[in-house]
Amino acid sequence: MRPSGRELSEMRAVSIETGVTKHAEGSCMIRIGDTHVLCTATIEDRVPPFIKGSGLGWVTAEYGMLPRSTTSRMRREATAGKQGGRTVEIQRLIGRSLRAGVDRVALGERQITVDCDVIQADGGTRCASITGGWVALKLAVNKLIKTGAVTSDPLVDPVAAVSCGLYAGQAVLDLDYPEDSEAGVDGNFIMTQSGKLIEVQMSAEGATFNRDQMNQLMDLAEKGVSELAAAQLAAVNA
Q: 49-74 burial by CB neighbour count: b if 16+ within 10 A, else e?
């Protein structure tokens, strides 16, 4: 029995509310169970120096957790004077995951920055950030299409992410914090709606896993991403 009472292949409740901020070109609040992330997308008519003049667009991301997004207060990274290694790793993951679903030629020479701020954490914050980040990105791109700034949709396939792991010896979908902290094996699966893999992060701690278990986790991830992609499309088309 999972701590939440969910079935092994059952996602937490997912909701995506769009247009939650006034100024960003695209924004949403994604809630996956008790993990809540504010995602905003900002369009800028510039690109990093290493692609300037190439005609290619760029999508990047920043990630952060509010001090009381967890059970005890965390010190703001700005106060410490630098980002922690975990933060840097996660925002790089978000950026490269979102870029995998972008036709950078169609986007044109402009940059879209996706900011993901964790309001409340209960496991799976990076997965929620990627999933909500795509929604914010899509809403920003829709504005470019509407104004004629781009002539074809540069978002070729929805990108979403979900965690899976082995908890109490069984493969489970969408780990919350109690499961994540106790799982012998856990992983993050980033995929497109069409089922193409972008990145898989798997690690074992206190246990090992075999090929059959890996296949079980992949099957669960495909199911979860399919459900998340449906929620994404419903949100952007609402």
A: eeeeeeebbbbbbbbbbbeebeeeee
Q: For the residues 208-219, what does the mean pLDDT come to? A: 96
What does the pLDDT look like over 167-186, one tens digit per residue? 999 999 999 999 999 999 99
d(CA 116, CA 230): 21
Residue 87 has pLDDT above 90, yes or no: yes
| Positive or negative: CA dihedral 85, 87, 88, 89 | positive
Kindly state whether residue 8 falls inside one of the protein's structural domains.
no
Binding-site residue numbers are: 86, 124-126
CATH number assigned to the domain comprising residue 141: 3.30.230.70
Domains in the chain, number? 1
In order of 113, 135, 140, 196, 229, the CA distances from 107 in angstroms are: 13, 16, 11, 21, 21
9 found inside a domain: no
Binding residue numbers for phosphate: 86, 124-126
pTM of structure: 0.96
